[in-house]
Amino acid sequence: MEKYDIEYFLYIGGNDSMDTIKQLSDYAAMHGKDQKFIGIPKTIDNDLPVTDHTPGYGSASKFIATTMKEIIRDNESFGASEPKLCVVEIMGRNAGWLTAASMLADDPDCNGPDLIYLPEVAFDPDTFIHHVKDLCLIEKSIVIAISEGIKLADGTLVCELGNDAAFVDAFGHRQLSGAGKVLTNMIAEQIGYKTRTIEFSILQRCATHLASRVDIDEAYNVGYVGCEAALNGETGKMITIEVLKRTPYVADYGIHDIHDIANVEKKVPLDWITRDGTYVSDEFREYAHPLVLGSLSKYTAGGVPKHLVL
Amino acid sequence: MEKYDIEYFLYIGGNDSMDTIKQLSDYAAMHGKDQKFIGIPKTIDNDLPVTDHTPGYGSASKFIATTMKEIIRDNESFGASEPKLCVVEIMGRNAGWLTAASMLADDPDCNGPDLIYLPEVAFDPDTFIHHVKDLCLIEKSIVIAISEGIKLADGTLVCELGNDAAFVDAFGHRQLSGAGKVLTNMIAEQIGYKTRTIEFSILQRCATHLASRVDIDEAYNVGYVGCEAALNGETGKMITIEVLKRTPYVADYGIHDIHDIANVEKKVPLDWITRDGTYVSDEFREYAHPLVLGSLSKYTAGGVPKHLVL
User: Fold this and answer.
1) What is the pLDDT of residues B83-108, one digit of tens each?
2) 20 to 30 A from B193, CA-CA: which of A66, A226, B66, B263?
């Protein structure tokens, strides 16, 4: 930074990026350096503390809610003689924010997923099979949303019960996949009805054609506020979103010491998890719903959205 | 039908449905029955003969092209030191129409997939690995589109090279899945770079939020023309789409004997498959591009599209 005369470093990202901001600003403070380091929140995982939520989460939630409605409608369309099941695996290692957003498919025109499992609550295979069996007695279409990171009471990841090899990323996190397939196999073996596994995979983080307008505006605004803060001499801090009212939605922006943020994972509050650990509450809906509002008027040419190329 | 005084039977669907129309109209003819049986084409597979294309294909192609662009952009965004690969598995047992549509992601702002494999051409694992190795020498982001039904020269399905059990549906078709995973494992073993598998699964057939306007209009029109035909006394026939001009797009509707249609699968013409069986030609683009044009102004309430519930 000294070599290139760089005075300000604004880093956009989630937990790992905020840890980088903490380390860099600590280093600068320790060595009497003048460079300013500011964190700009951005992660679909929504697991940064202090800020109400993170840019990216609203758009990913809009994709998840929209696609979940479409999957439920597809799954219901068969008029099958026996129950038809579908397990949808959604991103989230330790925090179930994204998976919880599948409840936004619960609308006057859609019943939403039947079961929602988050990593915040220990997953018990026997209770799961019991819940699914009960549903099979009363419904012909059953759609189950699960976080990739659901785990047993002893901490064993459900995906580790399968055969898939687990990769480790550059930050030492295990690359999870396979929990959906494990549950599908469990249903096949213990209940016997045909079950499909769907993994949203990276579609949930890259579906810009379903971005939420609120999310886009806030992503722009945290960047703007971050630049202002750096120019005003702030360092070692992250910009936050402070929601003043949820209905009608009113948000403002703040700034907070990075030391309270780096390496702290914000999870879905346990009292928002209901129905014996198989759903999320209306408090969650009130929280998440404003974040999926509005659409980007996407620039389409020739029937397919155009991307901005720098 | 006699019990309920039903005179007209219009059946919306693909190959299996057209076979039903053939059997029912043959039965009526053989037994001197007056009921009229008309097929209305509708399948994302686009594998019905005689008609230029089938309703459903344009919207599924719009989803595939849009999502493929987003996946490619995501895959390119890492600036990794070594190549990052992604295999995208797309529906299509014997016909590669849907997978071919991934080439519509090839736009001024996107290079499109690097390799496209259709079931129409025998798949050779050694040549595949050779192509991928070559790409790894010159690119850091490689995205490969494959049909679920790609097969070796001896007819063995690539997905059967994996461990996944194959289900059989009500019409006796095998439920395929796993070809993408098989190729991903092949790359991991023989090349070693990190590779992700994405299955579009049912998202490609149920993503109504990305429906094409041309497709919606034509779906309505083949129904209208089918009703007219039945009322005019036609039976044992299917409504067809006849494209008079591709640019600007002008289509009309016709009607054709079901016996030329039932149980005949229309495949991607071999002379549209290029680059040693790894891509599709501009003729394909000219064919498919008009079908993804325009959008439905979807009725959104609360940030998520509403569905019509009868």
Assistant:
1) 999 999 999 999 999 999 999 999 99
2) B66
Angle between helices A57-76 and A213-231 (to 10 degrees): 170
Q: Where are the beta strands (DSSP E) in A91-135?
A: 106-107, 110-111, 115-117
Separation between Cα atoms, residue B162 and residue B179, nearest integer Å: 7
Beta-carbon count within 10 A of A302 CB:
14
Percentages (nearest 5) of helix, strand, coil residues in chain B = 40, 25, 40
- The predicted-structure confidence for A296-308, as pLDDT tens digits, reads as follows 877 777 888 888 8
Q: Which residues of chain B neighbour A215 with C-beta distances below 8 Å?
A: none
Over residues B140-164, mean pLDDT: 91
- Long-range contacts at B282-286 (CB < 8 A, ≥ 24 apart): B284/B100, B284/B103, B285/B103, B285/B104, B285/B106, B286/B246, B286/B247
Q: In chain B, where does DSSP find H-type helix? A: 15-30, 57-76, 97-100, 125-138, 179-190, 203-206, 213-231, 282-288
Confidence at residue A3, expressed as pLDDT on a 0 to 100 scale:
97
Q: Any residues with CB less than 8 A from the CB of A212 and at least 6 apart, and which?
A: A58, A59, A61, A62, A291, A292, A293, A294, A295, B303
Please state, in angstroms and rounded to a whole number, the distance separating the CA atoms of residues A28 and B60. Answer: 53
From A6-20, A266-280, B170-184, the region with the lowest mean pLDDT: B170-184
The beta-carbon neighbor of B69 closest among A65, A201, A304 is A304
Nearest-10 Cα torsion for B264, B266, B267, B271: 120
ipTM: 0.89
Q: How many Å apart are CA B46 and CA B93, to the nearest integer?
A: 12
List CB contacts (< 8 A) between A292 and chain B: 302-304
> Which among A62, A74, A293 has the least Cβ separation from residue B206?
A74
Residues belonging to chain B: 310
B45-63 pLDDT tens trace: 999 999 999 999 999 999 9
Candidates B208, B304, B310: best to mutate against A (most CBs of A within 10 A) is B304
DSSP A151: B
pLDDT tops 80 at residue B253? yes
